[in-house]
Design a protein that fits this description.
alpha+beta; single chain; STM4215-like; 128 residues
Length: 128
């Protein structure tokens, strides 16, 4: 199981986020004609903590895009992503998360599709 599969399972099981988006959580891109609200996630970078020439702990930054037809609903979804991930420690699939920290949040609007989205960047430290 990849870390991303464990991340999906964890988010899909989070009651608050599930109420907002059901299971509409997708890797990298939103499917065409996706039902909103929905969440996409992308791994932006994966630095690693090293000690004595051994890779000990990856701490990737993930971008979560919270998509909705209205600004308020996009903010509600983003709040549930934060609730699920900020200051989280514990299991995520087969992986143990040492720390999960929300770094930034920004609001966006796509005038072409008329869809709002809120971007939440999260750094997740986990054991491989």
């Amino acid at each position: 199981m990849s870390f991303e599969e464990g991340l999906f399972d964890y988010l899909d099981d989070h009651a608050g986020l599930s109420r907002e988006v059901d299971s509409r959580i997708y890797p990298v891109r939103l499917p065409q004609r996706a039902v909103l609200p929905a969440v996409t996630y992308t791994r932006l970078a994966t630095p690693r903590l090293h000690e004595f020439e051994a890779s000990l702990l990856p701490y990737p930054t993930f971008q979560f895009d919270c998509w909705a037809a209205s600004y308020g609903r996009a903010k509600d979804v983003a709040a549930q992503v934060r609730a699920a991930l900020d200051i989280y420690r514990g299991a995520m699939g087969a992986y143990t998360v040492q720390a999960s920290i929300v770094e930034t949040e920004r609001d966006m609007y796509d005038s072409e599709t008329k869809v709002w989205h809120v971007i939440v960047d999260v750094e997740i430290w986990y054991e491989e």
